[in-house]
Amino acid sequence: MTRSSDYFVLTARVLHWLMAVMIVSMLFIGVGMVASVSERHDWLLRIHKPLGVAILILAVLRLIVRLRNPPPPLPADLPAIQKLAAYASHYLLYALMLVIPLVGWAMLSAGGYPVMLSHSLRLPPIFPTNATAFAILRHAHAWLAMLLFLTFLAHVGAALYHGLIRRDGVLSSMTGIGRGPG
Amino acid sequence: MHAPLALSTRSMVLRFAVIAFVLLIIVLAFAYVGGWLTPNRLTAQRMVNQLQANAGVFPGYRRNHAKGVCVAGYFDSNGQAQTYSVAQVFATGRTPVVGRFAVPVGNPYAPDSSAPIRSMALRFTQANGQQWRTGMNSMPVFPVATPQSFFEFLQAQQPDPSTGKPNPAKIGAFFAAHPEAGAFLAWVKTARPSASYVTESYWSLNAFEFVDAHGERHAVRWRMVPDAHDDAVGGSDPNYLDADLAQRLAQGPQRWHLIVTLANPGDPTNDATKAWPSDRREIDAGTLVLTGTEPQASGACRDINYDPTVLPNGIAISDDPLLPARSAAYATSYLRRTSEEAHLPGTANTTPEAK
């Protein structure tokens, strides 16, 4: 028998998979645009900024949904070290989802760039113009994104480990399909 | 909960292999997109590395057009360009400008006469907060049409280690292989290093699009045409340009007219080596007035990246392949020099001898 607490609530599952697509796209867009000198550089950059703001807004929404709907508990027999890894990596994922877009926004502000989300929609600066701050924020943006990519890899690896090796219902609690943990 | 059936060793190994395979594919795709698997792909980093190989590394300075000076003033629009572009800068009125004149060299200590070309970069800040940044050169056409050709042009100019100078044979071979540089070569034969920044015309070189109130797009190029006319050639002093500028500004503001050229259908917008025919419609959009100058090390232009793809609503980039490459390379140069200003670890922090 499956209980509702075996699954993430529907809103959380929808947000998870929507943001998974957006964030993974964003990581590829980010490394792709800085390595490109072709017209790709321009159109990837034009997607990058509004997509980043969309991720920031959804991350705030998702944090609220998470706080109001505690996730299903981890399997009782999961080794302590794996539980710790699960908690730590999820704190990190949430932190990075919120911080990386803010660092990007602050970085453009510090560089004196107008933060244009479209041809005419401009966000206000959130940091004073300062070249030193720009350099630090620009490097931080890239390194934090690299950390997010590594955390994403660990997350995918762990999800597949739960789904294929342990088969303990952790993966299906987010997919909402297949055999429930009950 | 009921425990799942135990896996056979063979099945367990297979499942771990599937997980490893999935992760490997993700990492490889990421590395490919980031250019790490294709070291020969042309990137902004390689372009800027080539500029550094040619001129040396001068911490804190731009990687090209390194020698320059800040200027400030405003643009008085007469409203003539409004029919073609909704950009606020073209409505009748005044827009503040922070600009920079420069010599197209990588060495900030090179003499002013080292190139017969000057550049003018401008940042217009509209009242609505949107910006128009443009980098123009005092030549009517660019030598090459694509980022790849520009990179090869830079490679051809790399100093030979034995002489410390570019190898004329390599430059000759480059031009032989690039007939599109013909118009530039014909122009450069007649060009002399001017004695002043303010007597030069500056061309956008790349084509852009103006977008009007109906959303119609108009292919354009623009240039700044000076009020001051003087064919004087610079003297033997290595640094005459800044002194000339300060002296002229002390006498009064210096003016240029912004002339916008509208393309006819079929005029090339993706090839900066080709000038458009001289009978094309031109609009005098207003007057650029420069009133003051500051050294670039302390002036307002120092921390501005004059990326020509930073545009307000009403101006857009064309299909010119040089524009995204300029944007990418300028961003790389900007990150390197601001990192040096910030003294971040791993950045160049010694000032090499002036060459």
List the topology elements.
The complex is a heterodimer of chains A (182) and B (355).
Chain A (H helix, E strand, L loop, with lengths): L9 H25 L4 H30 L11 H31 L4 E2 L5 E2 L7 H36 L3 H6 L7
Antiparallel strand pairs in A: 1-2
Helix pairs in contact in A: 1-2, 2-3, 3-4
Chain B lengths: L8 H25 L10 H12 L11 E11 L15 E11 L15 E7 L5 E7 L9 H10 L11 H10 L4 H9 L11 E2 L4 E4 L5 E10 L13 H12 L2 E9 L19 E14 L19 E3 L4 H20 L14
Antiparallel strand pairs in B: 1-2, 1-9, 2-3, 3-4, 5-7, 6-7, 6-10, 7-8, 8-9
Helix pairs in contact in B: 2-7
Structure overview:
The complex is a heterodimer of chains A (about 180) and B (about 350). Chain A has a single domain (about 5-175), classed as Fumarate Reductase Cytochrome B subunit. Helix content of chain A is about 70%, strand content about 0%. The termini of chain A are close together. In chain A, a hairpin with a 5-residue loop joins strand 1 and strand 2 (about 120-125). Chain A has five helices and two strands, in the order αααββαα. Chain A has a two-stranded antiparallel sheet with strand order 1-2. By secondary structure, chain A is mostly helical. In chain A, helix 1 (about 10-35) runs antiparallel to helix 2, helix 2 packs across helix 3 (about 80-110) and helix 3 packs antiparallel against helix 4. Chain B is α+β, with helices and mostly antiparallel strands and about 350 residues long. Chain B folds into two domains: about 10-40; about 40-340, Catalase HpII,  Chain A, domain 1, CATH 2.40.180. Chain B is about 30% helix and about 20% strand. In chain B, strands 1, 2, 3, 4, 5, 6, 7, 8, 9 and 10 form a ten-stranded antiparallel beta sheet that branches. In chain B, a hairpin with a 5-residue loop joins strand 6 and strand 7. In chain B, helix 2 crosses helix 7 (about 320-340). Chain B is globular and about 90 Å long. The model of chain B is unreliable at about 350-355 (pLDDT under 50).
